[in-house]
Each structure stands twice: as structure tokens, then as C-alpha cells.
What does this fold into?
Amino acid sequence: MKPIAVLAALSLLTLNVGAQVARPLSVPPAPIVSGGSLLQIGGALMLVLAAVAAVAWLLKRLNPHQIAQGGALRVISATAVGQRERVVLVEVDGTWLLVGVAPGHVSALHTMPKPATPARQAETAQNGAGFSGWLKQTLERSRHA
It folds into this structure.
């Protein structure tokens, strides 16, 4: 063979091998999010939500407001009288205070001694056991009317 023909064959062979190496592989790209990773993310989310619910339940159960009060001050009842205004009945050392509460302002409305038994408890004791006694009385009234 002639040297030029050998060189031409070698150059064609190297170009062909280089072209094969440089060609992109026909392997499909890996998916960014797979089913397993979605399952892991969902499980972690459920775990975090369960932890939040458990902490909320625990805080509600322990009621840190009453623990911090120490028993010297106790809220008996409260009711809203406006969008941001409330009337609160507070017990302080055997005295009941009726207090009006508004944003940035608290004022005493009335002061009275603590009754021996609150009116609602006395009424419940006379009429029976709360709702069941009330229902019984209402049914008896409707039968007699």
C-alpha cells in the first residue's frame, strides 16, 4: 500500500471513532421528581402536621393562662359587646369586678362581693341537672299547654 492511502485510512478511522465517542448517548434523563421522593415529602409533611396538632392539643390541655395566674385573679365570664370591646367578670380575693375592655383602655364598671353560689349554679340546682332539667321542664310545659 502506498503511504498516503494508509494515512488516509488512519485519519478516517480516527475521525469515525471520535465521532462515535462524541455522539450523545440515547439514555433518557432521570426524572426530577420520582414516586419515592413524593412519598418521602408527603410523609414528612404529615409528620410535621401531626406534631403541630399534638403541640396545640397539649397547650390547650395544660392551659398555661390559668397556671400563670396563680389563683389570685380568675376570669369568671366574658362576652363581646362590640367588634373589639368586651365586658369581663373577674374575681379578685372574694370580690367580683365587672370590667369593660377595649383596645388601649380598661375601666371598672361595677364591683360586688362574690355570691355564695353563682346564680346559674343555683338555678341549675333548682331545675335539675343543666340541659337535661331544662329539656324536661320544656317538654312538661308543652304537654300541659
